């Protein structure tokens, strides 16, 4: 449901119909001197932008991540600076 209101005469409509159609109908017959004035609610505050992301220059390092039951060592190439897997 959408609320539409007139600041000039205090008229309020709560509707699920197209807002512009409801407002146009009221505007044509508004009893207020000087005509209808549509009340527009305050907009919600804008979202704050996240700070710029500094990308890592990646310093690849080979790290042992596991040893299989057969004794084979498994390695991963990770960034020494940020810890992400590289390549």
Question: How would you describe this structure to a colleague?
Answer:
- This protein is mainly β and 87 residues long.
- The protein has two domains: 2-39, no CATH class; 57-87, no CATH class.
- The chain contains one helix and five strands.
- It has one helix at 19-28; strands at residues 2-6, 12-15, 38-39, 60-67, 73-79.
- The protein has a three-stranded antiparallel sheet with strand order 2-1-3, covered by helices on one side.
- β1 (2-6) and β2 (12-15) form a beta hairpin.
- The longest helix is centred in the N-terminal third of the chain and has 10 residues, at 19-28.
- The radius of gyration is 32 Å and the shape is rod-shaped.
What's the shape?
A: rod-shaped
Low confidence ranges: none
For the biggest β-sheet, the strand order reads 2-1-3
Query: Which percent band covers the strand fraction?
Result: 25-35%
In total, how many domains does the architecture comprise?
Answer: 2
Overview in brief:
With 87 residues, this protein is mainly β. The chain contains one helix and five strands; from the N terminus they run ββαβββ.
Describe the SSE topology:
Elements: E1 2-6, E2 12-15, H1 19-28, E3 38-39, E4 60-67, E5 73-79
Antiparallel strand pairs: 1-2, 1-3, 4-5
């Amino acid at each position: 449901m959408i609320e539409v209101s007139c600041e000039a005469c205090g008229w309020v409509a709560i509707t699920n119909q197209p807002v512009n159609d409801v407002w146009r109908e009221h505007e044509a017959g508004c009893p207020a001197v000087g005509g209808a004035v549509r009340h527009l609610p305050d907009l919600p505050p804008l979202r704050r932008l996240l700070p710029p992301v500094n990308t890592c220059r990646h310093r690849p390092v080979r790290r042992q991540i596991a040893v299989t039951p057969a004794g084979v060592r498994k390695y991963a190439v990770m960034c020494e600076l940020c810890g992400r897997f590289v390549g």
